From TrEMBL:
NCBIfam families: thrC. One of its GO terms (molecular function) is threonine synthase activity. Keywords: Amino-acid biosynthesis, Lyase, Pyridoxal phosphate, Threonine biosynthesis. Pathway: Amino-acid biosynthesis; L-threonine biosynthesis; L-threonine from L-aspartate: step 5/5. It comes from the Bacteria. Its cofactor is pyridoxal 5'-phosphate. The lineage of its organism: Bacteria, Bacillati, Bacillota, Bacilli, Bacillales. This is Threonine synthase. Belongs to the threonine synthase family. Residues 22-316 form the Tryptophan synthase beta chain-like PALP domain. It comes from Salinithrix halophila.
Length: 353
């Protein structure tokens, strides 16, 4: 199989003979059946595990396109605002293409793994005393004035690359699922999936379209509330966004498909996050678990029918955010003397519980 999303889905992408060949083997991520959660929720649940991408999130699909096109157009530098994953991905692909990369992040609100990635890949990291929405406003203005390419998802090439995840879901299942559940932050990804499902069906590779169900964190649920959230707050820092740039296309995706944009609380997010790891062996980051938390909610209200085939997009790898992981689980490693007797006592103690 050809490597990377550009080689694999070339006819669907805006590439030319001049587009540089760049890939870190992004895409082709697994669609993992979730038997325990399927049983519990009464649906046929699959997980699209985007944490398998080279920098550990779905952003790589769109970033490979955005960076390739920036290079094709002669750009020497790229810039983005980010809650962390976009910056990690931009930094990696910019490094590979030999471009300068500037990332602007909300100070103190980026998960440790993501920040360390941007630093190690050699990006110039600027941490501003504000939130993502404010950072995005700043970089959008700078990209208009300075000789630097914006690689946030308002860059249309990002959406083009990200839509390939919908193609992969259809390729694996033989058709689109009944329901596609996805976390919503800046709302680019839900827009990309919807575009992908529609294009794949038009091309004859799938027969139906899924209901698109997007989930915001309750403390940042601008679309659900119908107004921007000035001070978004959530444990899921990746989607701590109060004024989604792709607001309208996300609403269109939900409406056209017969789905919805809903919200989930931090507690619901963390419950789904723990359940995914504990019962399915799949460790995603908190924002990703919003998709599963949302499905659980829609099962309770009956909005998803029994036995529906549901795909939850797990957008990022759990290792991105070790701090939340350690905070989310009350049981910590036991510290013992380095002796067989002590370890054995602990093993037997555990068995007696
Ligand atoms: N899940 C994760 C892990 C993310 O990093 C993001 C967005 C989303 C979901 C939401 O996707 O914005 O397309 O609706 N992260 C961006 C970033 C904002 O800067 O990394 P969206």
């Amino acid at each position: 199989m050809s490597e990377g999303i550009i080689a694999r889905y070339r006819p669907f992408l805006p590439v030319t003979d001049q587009t540089p060949e760049v890939t870190l083997h992004e895409g082709n991520t697994p669609l993992i059946h979730a038997p325990a959660l399927s049983d519990q929720l009464g649906v046929e649940l699959y997980l699209k595990v985007e944490g398998f991408n080279p920098t550990g999130s779905f952003k790589d699909r769109g970033m490979v396109m955005a960076i390739a096109k920036a290079a094709e157009e002669g750009s020497r530098a790229v810039i983005c605002a980010s809650t962390g994953n976009t910056s990690a991905s931009a930094a990696a692909f910019a490094a590979r293409m030999g471009l300068r990369c500037i990332v602007v992040v909300p100070d103190g609100h980026v998960a440790l793994g993501k920040l360390s990635q941007a630093v190690v890949y050699g990006a110039e990291v600027l941490a501003v005393k504000g939130n993502f929405d404010q950072a995005l406003e700043i970089v959008r203005e700078i990209a208009r004035e300075a000789d630097v390419t914006l690689v946030n998802s308002v860059n249309p090439y990002r959406i083009e690359g990200q839509k390939t995840a919908a193609f992969e879901v259809c390729d694996r299942l033989g058709d689109a699922p009944d329901v596609l559940a996805i976390p919503v932050g800046n709302a680019g990804n839900i827009s990309a999936y919807w575009k992908g499902f529609k294009e794949y069906r038009e091309a004859g590779y799938s027969g139906k379209l899924p209901l698109m169900c997007g989930f915001e964190a309750e403390g940042a649920a601008a679309i659900v509330r119908g107004e921007r959230v000035e001070k978004p707050e959530t444990v899921a820092t990746a989607i701590r966004i109060g004024n989604p740039a792709s607001w309208e296309t996300a609403v269109t995706a939900a409406k056209e498909s017969g789905g919805l944009i809903g919200s989930v609380t931090d507690e619901e997010i963390l419950n789904a996050y723990r359940a995914l790891a504990r019962w399915e062996g799949v460790f995603c980051e908190p924002a990703s678990a919003a998709s599963v938390a949302g499905v659980s909610k829609l099962r309770q209200t009956g909005e998803i029918p029994d036995h529906a085939r549901v795909v939850c997009v797990l957008t990022g790898n759990g290792l991105k955010d070790p701090t939340t992981a350690m905070d989310a689980i009350p049981v910590k490693p036991k510290v013992l003397p380095c002796e067989k007797r002590a370890v054995l006592a602990a093993v037997e103690d555990k068995e007696e519980e």
